[in-house]
């Protein structure tokens, strides 16, 4: 036998190459597992080349490390064939571990195929020596080398499959696994080499013709290291890029989520907005059509929100809305949707097992809102009016449902607020009626359909008349005599109130002029001003004109503005009121006690009179709170040097009570109803005659 020897530095290099090739293979397997579909074949192909060259060059460097006492060379074609086998086996292995699952039989077959590939690469590579008369193989060692090849492949496949996902210590684990795999591959190679015996007299037919040792070793080492390094670098960089892309796309998804949240939710209360509500309504309708059942839409509008907003400012108003939204939301059932659809408007979409359940849900909402709210240092009270529609029944599409719920809500407001109304078909007619009314209102002035009724005011102490309040009426051609509550709101919303208000001023002053001429020089006529008139720049001018045209002393005119109007923009009010006061016009704060007055402003307002709201007077006899409030208002008025008028006096007991409490003047149905001017005078005269007879 020829005695072979090894160049140990090359053996060491071959081991390093094996380990590096193993590491690259594991990294690529991981890369393939997370790559996008289209990129997978490319990664497998590129990976197969890199890994094949790695394994093959380990083998070839191992061959170059071996020398015999005869010159050696390698046949080029056969050597290239062995390289091709290495690449194919690598490709197969990479493909196998890139599959989503690896059942047992896949694994075993794969290990066999890969082991066979590596072994054939090795033995075909040995054959490239073209030894004559041939290599004498020790069958036991060959068998052992085959076994090592298959076992190493099995281990490699298993490890690569396990480590393909990114786990916390994946790099360290891959390093360890690469070491074991490298050792196994090297072990296989050198066991195969040990199996080869070269009989004495053998010679190498490839020597001198094919590839030669020496410089070839360095070249292969360099090329291999370069290929592996490039493969590894590409894989690592690409993985990093992918990680960055993933991070980017997840932050994009997050941004998208936020945008949708913004587009579908109300910014102030974070409740769903109209858009999302409409979508939910559609879904609920579909669900009911498919599975049966019912749902209710409840349109809620806050009562008394505007005065709070005006008195405390938008900031407090906003906070209150948020509190209301929060309280309602906390009491929702999971299947219900609460949306904010406008200023102080909320809509609840409630799934019901029975249509009757709507009563409980609506009742609960009304009760919840009626409890006081703590906003900063203010304790605020509002209530809500709820309009309810049921599906199926009250509309076939979401617009109709919402519109009808809105109409029902208006009905609830009309019925005294702080409650709910179920929709009825007649309510829709109401909406149409309003439209018609608006149309008629536009021409009412020209057609002279307005008139004034006068309600007398009396001195509380001696019962003498001291003037009258002018109250607007509209003689509608079809609907008969309409009271202000039926149309003032409409006139305010359309701005028509300015022209109507000027007419009232003129008319009332004209009437007062007549009384003045008749000798009632101490009387005053009271005219109500709406908020819009009060803000209008021409008000002072209009008042001056009405007085001048009718040659009336300013002192004969009282202007009544509601407490809410006076306080809504207290500084602006102060300015207008001062101008009016300088003219000598008498000023009265109407409906006092219903708004939120700041005592500080009240003190500075140049008002002459406070009119206690008739709500307090009404319950005076039954509610001791109201009596307490009235005496407080009287005390306040006295302290601020204001006259106190009580309106809405309907019973003798109220009259006595209010007189005893210290009210200066009284007004109410008990003492006189609002009447047209002619009847007014007649009624007063009769009353005075009656009083004199009684005396
Ligand atoms: P207001 O200024 O508080 O006027 C008093 C209202 O109470 C009048 O209703 C009057 O008819 C009613 N009233 C008087 N005595 C009694 C009573 O004993 N019991 C009850 N239950 N009610 C009584 P009216 O005429 O329907 O006016 C309602 C409101 O419309 C007025 O409230 C006022 O704010 C407004 N208004 C009336 N005329 C005008 C006007 O010319 N311009 C403006 N801007 N508003 C007006
Ligand atoms: Mg009034
Ligand atoms: Mg009033």
What is the structure about, briefly put?
With 695 residues, this protein is of the alpha/beta class. Helix content is 60%, strand content 16%.
Description:
The chain folds into three domains: 5-244, no CATH class; 274-425, Alpha-Beta Plaits (2-Layer Sandwich), CATH 3.30.70.270; 439-683, TIM Barrel. The chain is rod-shaped and about 165 Å long. With 695 residues, it is of the alpha/beta class. α12 (398-414) links the parallel β14 and β15 (419-422). The chain has 24 helices and 25 strands. The protein is 60% helix and 16% strand. The longest helix has 50 residues, at 215-264. The strands form seven sheets. Strands 16-17-19-20-21-22-23-24 form an eight-stranded mixed beta barrel, surrounded by five helices. Strands 10-11-9-14-15 form a five-stranded mixed sheet, with helices on both faces. Residues 469, 528, 560, 590 line the site of one magnesium ion (MG).
Main sheet overview: 8 strands, mixed, barrel
CATH class of the largest domain: Alpha Beta
Structural domains: how many: 3
- CATH homologous superfamily heading of the largest domain: EAL domain
Low-confidence blocks of residues: none
Number of strands: 25
First-last Cα distance:
159 Å
């Amino acid at each position: 036998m020829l005695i072979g020897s090894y160049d140990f530095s090359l053996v060491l290099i071959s081991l390093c190459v094996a380990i590096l090739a193993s590491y690259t293979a594991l990294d690529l397997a991981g890369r393939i597992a997370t790559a996008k579909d289209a990129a997978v074949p490319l990664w497998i192909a590129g990976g197969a080349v890199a890994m094949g060259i790695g394994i093959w060059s380990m083998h070839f460097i191992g061959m170059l490390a071996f020398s015999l006492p005869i010159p050696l060379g390698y046949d080029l074609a056969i050597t290239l064939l062995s390289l091709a086998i290495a690449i194919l086996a690598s490709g197969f292995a990479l493909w196998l571990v890139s599959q989503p699952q690896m059942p047992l039989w896949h694994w075993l077959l794969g290990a066999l195929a890969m082991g066979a590939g590596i072994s054939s690469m090795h033995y075909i590579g040995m054959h490239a020596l073209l030894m004559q008369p041939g290599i004498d193989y020790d069958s036991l060692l060959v068998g052992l080398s085959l076994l090592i090849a298959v076992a190493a492949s099995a281990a490699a496949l298993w490890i690569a499959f396990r480590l393909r996902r990114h786990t916390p210590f994946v790099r360290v684990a891959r390093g360890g696994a690469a070491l074991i795999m490298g050792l196994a591959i090297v072990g296989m190679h050198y066991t195969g080499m040990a199996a080869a015996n070269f009989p004495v007299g053998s010679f190498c037919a490839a020597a001198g013709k094919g590839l030669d040792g020496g410089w070839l070793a360095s070249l292969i080492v360099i090329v291999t290291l370069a290929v592996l390094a490039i493969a590894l670098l590409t894989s690592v960089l690409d993985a990093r890029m992918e990680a960055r892309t993933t991070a980017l796309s997840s932050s994009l998804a997050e941004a998208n989520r936020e945008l949708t949240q913004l587009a579908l939710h109300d910014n102030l209360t974070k409740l769903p907005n109209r858009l999302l509500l409409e979508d939910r309504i559609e879904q609920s309708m579909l669900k009911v059509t498919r599975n049966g059942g019912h749902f209710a839409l409840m349109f809620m509008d806050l009562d008394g929100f505007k005065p709070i907003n005006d008195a405390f400012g938008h900031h407090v108003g906003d906070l209150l809305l948020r509190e209301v939204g929060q309280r309602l939301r906390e009491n929702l059932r999971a299947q219900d949707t609460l949306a904010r659809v406008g200023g102080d408007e909320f809509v609840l979409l409630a799934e019901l097992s029975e249509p009757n359940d709507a009563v409980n849900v609506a009742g609960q909402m009304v009760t919840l809102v009626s409890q006081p709210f703590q906003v900063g240092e203010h304790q605020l009270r509002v209530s809500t009016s709820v309009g309810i529609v049921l599906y199926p029944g009250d509309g076939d599409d979401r617009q109709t449902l919402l519109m009808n719920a809105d109409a029902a809500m208006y009905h609830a407001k009309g019925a005294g607020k702080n409650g709910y109304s179920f929709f009825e078909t007649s309510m829709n007619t109401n909406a149409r009626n309003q439209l018609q009314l608006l149309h008629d209102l536009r021409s009412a002035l020209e057609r002279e359909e307005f008139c004034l009724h006068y309600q007398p005011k009396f001195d509380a102490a001696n019962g003498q008349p001291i003037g009258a309040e002018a109250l607007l009426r509209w003689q509608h051609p079809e609907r008969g005599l309409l009271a202000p509550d039926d149309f003032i709101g409409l006139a305010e919303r359309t701005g028509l109130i300015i022209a109507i208000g000027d007419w009232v001023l003129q008319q009332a002053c004209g009437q007062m002029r007549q009384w003045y001429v008749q000798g009632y020089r101490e009387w005053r006529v009271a005219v109500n001003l709406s908020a819009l008139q009060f803000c209008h720049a021409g008000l002072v001018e209009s008042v001056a004109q009405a007085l001048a045209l009718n040659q009336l002393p300013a002192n004969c005119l009282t202007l009544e503005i509601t407490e809410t109007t006076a306080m809504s923009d207290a500084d602006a009010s102060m300015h207008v009121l001062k101008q009016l006061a300088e003219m000598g016009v008498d000023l009265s704060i109407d409906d006092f006690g219903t708004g939120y007055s700041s005592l500080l402003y009240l003190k500075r307002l140049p008002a002459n009179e406070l009119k206690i709201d008739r709500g307090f007077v009404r319950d005076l006899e039954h509610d001791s709170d109201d009596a307490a409030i009235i005496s407080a208002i009287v005390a306040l008025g006295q302290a601020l040097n204001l006259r106190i008028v009580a309106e809405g006096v309907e019973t003798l007991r109220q009259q006595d009570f209010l007189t005893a409490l210290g009210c200066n003047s009284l007004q109410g149905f008990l003492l006189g109803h609002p009447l047209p001017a002619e009847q007014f005078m007649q009624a007063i005269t009769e009353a005075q005659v009656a009083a004199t007879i009684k005396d």
